[in-house]
Amino acid sequence: MADAVGKAFLVLAVLLSSFLLPSSCGRIERSSATSFSKGVRAKLKEKVSHLHFYFHDVVSGRNVTAVAVARPPNPQPPTSFGVVMVMDDLLTEGPEPTSRPVGRAQGLYAAAGLQEMGFLQAMNLVFAGGKYDGSVLTVLGRNAPFHAEREMPVVGGSGLFRFARGYAVARTHWLDMSTGNAIVEYDVYVMHY
Q1: What CA–CA distance (Å, rounded) separates 16 from 60?
Q2: Is the peptide bond before 101 cis (omega within 30 degrees of 0)?
Q3: DSSP type of residue 64
Q4: Would you give the distance in Å from CA 100 to the centre of its chain?
Q5: pLDDT for 99-154, tens place per residue?
Q6: CB 171 within 8 A of CB 149
Q7: Read out DSSP for 131-148?
Q8: Burial class for 76, CB neighbours closer than 10 Å (0-12, 13-18, 19+)
């Protein structure tokens, strides 16, 4: 008896789904898709934002914020080719480490140049406080730290930076050659909705 009830229930479920599913699943009415797209487009307005801050990379001493996670068996001076660093660096409003924090740079940089020091840098700029609290910009590009000015692309974002694209310009504000610690000034220009 239980087997017969189970079969009857299965047949009923298949019959009901064959009537209900085609009308509600798998098909999108052209008019509703178009009106949705127009509604979204009408509400989103693209804007350009300029952000200015300082990045504090502390690789030695107290309160280290960047650590080596991979080293080649035979390091290649002077470029450190093959070294991979992971960072969680402080971002501040001014160049002093005690300046007002605006967020963190979280990600990695890898020494990818044999002839010249050049990093493959992949980082999320995670903003805390103020207008952009909780929003993130993602930067991915080449950072040649001994060049006076470096440009890296902004490839995306989240929060207030959804659909972000743009570029970041980095300039070394201070570098201690004996420790490797640095303060880098950033100007980021980003288009977003």
Answers
A1: 68
A2: no
A3: -
A4: 22
A5: 999 999 999 999 999 999 999 999 999 999 999 999 999 999 999 999 999 999 99
A6: yes
A7: TTTT-EEEEEEEE-TTSS
A8: middle
